[in-house]
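Schema walk-through. Below, the input block comes first and the output block second. Nothing else is stored per chain. Lengths vary across the set, and this one has 228 residues.
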Amino acid sequence: MKAAEVKGFEFFGCVELRQILGKKAEDEKQLLDLLEEVPLDSVYYHTHEYFLRHKYILGPYPNDFANWAAIEVRDRVLGERLGVLDPYDFDSLGALRDEIIAIIDDHLTRLKMIPRVGYGEPFHFIQSRVVTVPTGLTARTLEEFRAALASVDASSIYFHAFEARMRLNRRDGDFVFWIRGALGLQELADRIRNTDPYMFSLEQLRARLLSLLDEALAKGGDGRGRPA
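--- output ---
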C-alpha cells in the first residue's frame, strides 16, 4: 500500500480541566458511601486519569483510592486490595465502580473499627473533562508513526491509549485501530492490543510501544518483512 493511499494517523494531545465536587471522606465508610453517589466521571478521574497526572513514574499504587487508603489512612491492607485493580479488565466505568465498592465493603465487614484519617488528608472527590489539543503531527507510514510517537507529548499517548478506550468507546485504542486497519499489520496490532497500558507510566508505555515498533520495522521497511 502506497503512503498516499494510507489514511494518516493524526496525533492529538489533551489537557485536563478539573472540578472539585465538594465531597470529602475522612474515613473508609464515608469513602464507600460517597462512591455510590458521585458521577462516574469522578471514578474515571481517580483511576484512569491518575496516569495522565503521573507521566514518568507511578505512585505506590496506580489509583487515588488505593494511595489514599494506604498513605493517608495508613490502611495498607485496603490499599493493596485496591491497588491490584486493573481498569483494563472492566468494560465500563459502572462495572469498575461496583468492584471498588465491593472491595471496600468486604474490607469493612472484617473490621471492628472503621479506619479513618488521623493526621493525613481527607479524600476529596474530583471530576474532570479532557479537552483534545491538535499536535500537528500526522503519520502515513510505520516509520513516520514511530518518529511521531517518540517525540509527541505524553498526553497524546494518554489520549489515544486511555481516553479512546473508555470515553470514546474505541475499545482497542487508536493505535491498534490504525495499525490494523490502515497499515494491515495484524501481528503488530495484536501485540500492542495485548500490552496492558495500566501496567506502565505514560513514558514507560511510550518506551514499550517504541520497542514493539522497532521490532516490526526490523523485519522490513513496512513492518511486514519486506522492503517498503
